[in-house]
Amino acid sequence: MTSTQFEHGFDPQxxxxxxxxxxxxxxxxxxxxxxxxxxxxxxxxTFGIIAIIFRVTFEFFQQVSLAEFFLDTKWTPLFADRHFGxxxxxxxxxxxxxxxxxxxxxxxxxxxxxxxxYAKPKxxxxxxxxxxxxxxxxxxxxxxxxxxxxxxxLRNFLPLEIFNALSAGLMxxxxxxxxxxxxxxxxxxxxxxxxxxxxxxxxxxxxxxIVKVVLPAALSGIAASIxxxxxxxxxxxxxxxIAAGQQPRLTLNPLESISTMxxxxxQISGGDSPRGSVNFKTLYAVGAVLFLITLALNIVSHWIxxxxxxxxx
Amino acid sequence: MTxxxxxxxxQDTTTAGFAPNIDRREWISKVAEYVFLTGxxxxxxxxxxxxxxxxxxxxxxxxxxxFMTETPSRFPNLGGIRPAIVSSLLLGLLVIVVAVPIGVGAxxxxxxxxxxNWWTALIExxxxxxxxxxxxxxxxxxxxxxxxxxxxxxxxxxxxxxxALLSLPxxxxxxxxxxxxxxxxxxHASLGLGVTKWQTxxxxxxxxxxxxxxxxxxxxxxRAIGDAACLIVVGAVSFLTFNPGLFQRFMALPIQIYxxxxxxxxxxxxxxxxxxxxxxxxxxxxxxxxxxxxxxxSNLI
Lengths: 313, 301
Fold this sequence. Notes:
The complex is a heterodimer of chains A (313) and B (301). Chain A has 313 residues and is an all-alpha fold.
């Protein structure tokens, strides 16, 4: 080697390797930035939902007063005699949700308790996915079954209207059972074994141990699962759209046809209300109410779950 | 407590105070087991009933020649559902193409790169909240952003992008779990040899995480294929006589089912049931693949 090769004070080979490392460092930075951008999409999505819903909702409330929206008891934006009272839709939503939870809470809890406390591991490994299949069935299929199987069946005993809150609610309950069951199951399994052993040592039976020791210890997870189930039921669209009807009524009678917030939204989307009209804007106003309700429920559920985690870790 | 036992078994035993009425309590406990099992089986019973009912209503129509390959007709016993099948397949494909890279990227960022600060916490809270936003609200987002803002109108691409955003939270959450499950020793071994972070992820973390990621992807795509609410808002049509293109009006299998259910003429409910059979077969195939992948690769590491 001659000294000319060292004129820059670097071994060329070392220099090349340095360049390579610099460019690799740059590449690494670019990749990190790209991955960060992927994570940022979730922020953009939330921002997009909020911006779009609340901008049009704001326009809506310049034409219809907040007082009318929240105090009137009729929802007839498509009729000649127009009323914009959202209560009938909220009422319908909570009626179907309440019926759904009457089904989903006992079935979900029973499934969770059986799988966690009684089932042998091999049986649980088969039964758990089987129950979760219920959540994988598209909701439009539940709508079909509610309208064309459950309703005719119930009409043998009850004076049901063809579209009614009861069938839709019962069907939604079956659908939401895995939501309640799955999270409850995890929280029941998270209860330390020592608590159960302590209970058995005091002479309690298995059922007494479950009811008096395990369930209270898992209570926060169970509560979170129920709230999440309510949120699912409130946001569910196709089942109620098909089976519960599209008649906004302020009634607590589950035998009657009602309309929910989601069913109304689907109905107005399928119609031909022109984009700038008040009718069209009701879609966003109702959407805003739905969004805020489900958001509140999800935050509460999330908050309870986080408290649970802190307790056992 | 001790005053309430009435069973004669214990009256002459000295341990009565320690084992009050134990046979009866054990019996109740045993009965409860079957009550819980009944609760669990009730859901499965309804599922079985549903499948049986749908097969009964729709099998004959499903087996009609041309049901899968022809375009819809105004008559319930004629025509087929090809445009809906093609729409749903295209929607599913686009959801994979769009949502998977973004979802896996976000998962890698959160698991491998993200510092523990308020900004990361914000992204995490965001994702868990997005997972709970109802499908129909995503419809409003799609309508606003893709139909109006980007000017696609009520086209297949708008529906697909909306479904992609809907699937994203589930993909991110499951991909994160898969990435987290890769043991740190693998990363340390790779980094210890002087390899860069991305090369470690690319050659070691990702290959191990792929079965888990794939399972999540398949499950979220099967949900997207079954979803109708957001597509109704975005503007899926109820009747389509051609295979849709990317920027054309579109349908989907669930929309086809909804359309058939709402037609008053008799016979359309059978067409709805037949379409449900197709949709359930697609979803069953997807879920079956997911379960297979999970079982096949579960003890890779």
